Amino acid sequence: MTDPKPAGRGRMKLAARCRVATEAPAFGMVVFCAILFNAALMGVETYSGLAAEHRLVLQGAENCCLALFSVEMLLRMGAFADRPKAFFRDPWNLFDLAVVASAFVPLVRENTTLLRLLRLARVLRTARFLPHLRILLIAVGRSLPGTASFLFVGALVLYVYAMVGWVCFAESDPGHYGSVGRAMLTLFLLTTLDGLTDAVRAGLQISRLSIIYYASYALLASFVLVNVLIGVVLNSLDEAREIEDAANRDRKQPGPPPADADVRDRIATARRALDEIEASLPAADGRPPRRLEASHSGP
Q1: In sequence order, which ranges of 23-130 are alpha helices (DSSP H)?
Q2: Hey, which bits of the chain come out as E strands?
Q3: Rounded to an integer, what distance in angstroms lies between the CA atom of residue 91 and that of residue 107?
Q4: Which end of the chain is less packed: N or C, by CB atoms within 10 Å?
Q5: Percent of the chain at pLDDT above 70?
Q6: pLDDT digits (tens, 9 = 90+) for 8-46
Q7: In sequence order, what are the residues at sequence separation of 6 or more whose Cβ sits closer than 8 angstroms to the Cβ of residue 61?
Q8: Phi-psi region of 195 (alpha: psi -120 to 50; beta: other; left: phi over 0)
Q9: For residue range 62-71, what is the model confidence (pLDDT) as tens digits?
């Protein structure tokens, strides 16, 4: 039986201590306030006069926020010291690590625009501390495939109606239907029903049948397709809630049992501890303390 490595016990202690720190409510509140403070700093920097006058103060505050975020990431990574692969299986951990670590990349630090965009991405890290916002972001991500299908169908409907509008109104209203591109832009703006009254009024001066064109387009594009999109988003929102609930249940449940080798190492450690305790006990019959049998050295 091989002895457990001291580094393994050290990693377990480190993970336990870091886990206590990261799971504390005060830790989350401090990081959340730091994210909001960092976002406020970015807003202040948009005022050129104020930014130039207090440049050193703003730069120092930004460095303090970066140092705090770095310590946060080190603690979060330390909480997974006993199971490093689990850290990289969490998408939020990967996102946080990428946002924080990018500030130390030389090419990024030299590019002011890219650095500001990455600093702006830190605001999205508030989703870690706001469960409802996290659910919304997950819902948006899961609705992308359905949204892509909706956009394809919407573009197809828009193109068909644009071609019909070009055929019917190109000569009478070239400003709105002079080409298929203009017709698609006109119909896209009519999707919100803004200006539909003026469009119908202008169409009636050309032909009475234009009311069928605009009415069918309004019903199909503004009501049917929009309701389909809402249905896709609501369905994704329900799935996101289920995913979040499952993740919360997994966090509350104890972790998976350790590997067989780890179990054997722990058993060996416990048996050696029992041997030491038994050796230290005085024998009642005057004989030297009895050691555990050698057969106990294996599982």
Answers
A1: 25-45, 48-53, 55-78, 84-88, 91-102, 106-110, 112-121
A2: none
A3: 25
A4: C
A5: 84
A6: 677 888 888 888 888 888 888 888 898 889 888 888 888
A7: 37, 41
A8: left
A9: 889 989 999 9
